[in-house]
Design brief:
With 555 residues, the chain is an alpha+beta fold. Helix content is 39%, strand content 17%. It contains 16 helices and 15 strands. The chain has helices at residues 3-12, 17-28, 40-48, 57-71, 81-104, 111-142, 156-165, 177-184, 214-241, 255-264, 295-312, 337-344, 350-359, 375-379, 419-433, 499-502; strands at residues 188-191, 196-203, 206-213, 270-278, 283-290, 318-325, 328-336, 363-364, 386-387, 392-398, 406-412, 455-461, 478-485, 506-510, 513-517. The strands form three sheets. Strands 9-10-11-12-13-15-14 form a seven-stranded mixed β-sheet, with helices on one face. A five-stranded mixed β-sheet has the order 4-5-6-7-8. The protein has a three-stranded antiparallel β-sheet with strand order 1-2-3. The radius of gyration is 30 Å and the shape is globular. The N and C termini lie far apart (77 Å).
Length: 555
């Protein structure tokens, strides 16, 4: 056995595909003997992951059997890159929707807010992003046995008509195109605080409307989602049984080729999220979700994956393999082409190569977080906003470290021009902001709670414009940057801005605040002369003569 075969056995030996196939066969009443490695994770999700497991049996049967009938017509069927990409687009959208449903369907928002943030975008994503691509995948297969031209059909309604004419009616029954049209054309009205939704649309040039209660709309979403689950499952079983019709050239390094290879590298406990290349440095990036966060296991897995990837794509200069999960911050290892070649061909022992990778600082593997935290609480936590008659605070972000509670925010003060009034607002904002509660991070522990913040970073603007948020001297909407520290000493260098920009601002120390003003009129000018060799008051660490001397800021 060569080293590459040993790597395959080690990697794929981490799970028992037979157990998954047994569950799949029991669920779909089939007798799949061998499953393509590219498809094992899709099948595993369909029998174990919520809400995927609620797929509609009637739709699955219709999808799989009708697709198989296409192949049995006697005409040659080919699934090229363009056709397979449609399945990938539909499936990837489906998995994103699955995460949205798991995250948002149970959130206790008001009916109107839940309609806007969850129900409406989720329904559109299912029928537009998922179903339309899956329907077109089927239509292009039908096109190969039909005398009619289905290849030029892209829109949802005509795609539904094509499927209905060819026996795929069960796949379209739950799709309400009128509701989709109402949403896309702005014809939605919430009544009874969002509990009832009116959908307005045109049909045969007539204005028509229908109403659904919020729970009825959610039932429709679940029905369409379960139909999408069944179509994905049906296509997957069909592909597994007819893999020979797929024509994808892996050597072209296309999106489809990389996606197929990523699917091949995925097992239930290690999922490839995507593979991409960085042409500038001829590097291949492979991003994985991994269940086991043990550092030694991650290192060993990266080594095996590097060799498996190299066996398919051996012309990259570098190979970056990264891992993360819900409790593990993004961790990675990077190997050179020569290092992978040496390991794979036993030119050098693996420990020797791995030591070289470490010495070259091409390894960052974090310890997983073991803090006793409520992941659900963290997932749904929101910072509050604040608004008074004269100012408002929003876009609060957590920038905390293990031992420092740090918050960032935007403060809007309108057209107030008096420095005394601006400073009063800044002080009020600090008093409110410094005890705002933050929560822990699921991956890297940070100081959290309602205790007084160690540091606050406040961007002060005049108006909450969509643009003009840059901390640039020529941005007239920008007033100042406030760096507040409980100890009175900042830990930021140049306010975390590029030094070339920081130097153009006007700096002032007021109590526990370091303030960088856009305009010089707000700074207090000190008359005492600064020695040319003294440290520059701007805090750059340079001598005054090498920094701000002659700029009219401190002299």
């Amino acid at each position: 056995m060569d080293f590459l075969d040993a790597s395959r056995q080690w990697y794929y030996g981490n799970f028992n595909s037979g157990d998954i196939l047994e569950k799949v066969n029991n669920a779909i009443s089939r007798n799949i003997v061998v499953c393509r490695p590219e498809l094992i994770c899709i099948l595993a999700d369909m029998v174990s992951k919520e809400p995927c497991v609620y797929w509609n049996r009637e739709v699955f049967e219709a999808t799989e059997k009708n697709l198989q009938n296409i192949v049995q017509q006697g005409k040659p069927i080919i699934i090229d890159e363009d056709i397979f990409e449609l399945f990938l687009a539909g499936y990837n959208t489906y998995m994103q929707i699955t995460n949205v449903i798991n995250d948002l369907s149970g959130v206790n928002d008001s009916p109107a807010m839940k309609n806007r943030q969850y129900r409406i975008p989720t329904y559109v994503s299912i029928v537009e992003g998922c179903m339309t691509n899956l329907y077109r995948f089927i239509a292009l297969l039908l096109n190969q046995i039909s005398e009619k031209d289905y290849a030029s059909t892209y829109k949802l309604k005509p795609l539904c008509e094509i499927l209905n004419k060819n026996g795929f009616n069960a796949l379209t029954d739950a799709v309400d195109i009128n509701i989709r049209n109402a949403i896309n054309h702005g014809g939605i009205l919430f009544r009874e605080d969002g509990k009832r939704i009116d959908f307005h649309y045109t049909e045969n040039r007539r204005s028509v409307s229908c109403s659904l209660m919020d729970y009825e709309f959610e039932q429709l979403i679940n029905k369409v989602y379960d139909m999408a689950s069944a179509i994905v499952l049906g296509i997957t079983v069909f592909l597994n049984n007819n893999w020979n019709v797929i024509r994808v050239n892996g050597s072209e390094k296309s999106f489809v080729a990389f996606s197929l290879f990523g699917m091949k590298l995925s097992i239930p406990t290690i999922r490839c999220r995507y593979i991409s290349e960085v042409p500038a440095c001829n590097q291949l990036n492979a991003v994985f979700w991994i269940a086991n966060s043990d550092r030694a296991y991650i290192s060993q897995t990266a080594i095996q994956l590097a060799m498996l990837i190299y066996s398919e794509y051996n012309d990259f200069d570098k190979y970056l393999i990264s891992f993360s999960n819900e409790r593990l911050a993004n961790s990675w290892l990077r190997f050179t082409n020569q290092e992978v070649y040496d390991m794979m061909n036993r030119k050098r022992e693996i420990p020797e190569v791995f030591k070289e990778v470490i010495n070259n600082k091409e390894v960052v593997i974090f310890n997983p977080s073991t803090e006793q935290i409520d992941l659900q609480k963290i997932k749904y936590f929101r910072f509050p906003n604040y608004q008074s008659d004269s100012y408002k605070i929003n876009q609060i972000e957590d920038a905390s470290l293990t031992d420092r509670k740090r918050l960032r925010c935007h403060l809007y003060i309108g057209n107030i021009s008096s420095k005394e009034e601006i400073m009063a607002i800044i002080r009020e904002s600090i008093e409110w902001l410094k005890t705002v509660k933050n929560v822990d991070s699921p991956t890297i522990h940070r100081k959290n709670g309602e205790m007084e913040a160690d540091s606050l970073y406040i961007n002060v603007y005049r108006y909450d414009a969509r643009q003009n948020k840059e901390l640039y001297p020529n941005n007239q909407n920008f007033v100042c940057f406030v760096d507040y520290n409980l100890t009175g000493e900042t830990t930021l260098v140049n306010g975390s801005l590029p030094s070339i920009i920081w130097k153009q601002l006007y700096h002032e120390k007021i109590g526990k605040m370091d303030i960088a003003w856009r305009e010089a009129k707000y700074t207090i000018r000190h008359i005492s002369k600064i020695g040319v060799n003294a440290p520059c008051p701007c805090g750059s660490g340079k001598k005054f003569k090498k920094c701000c001397k002659g700029k009219g800021i401190y002299d």
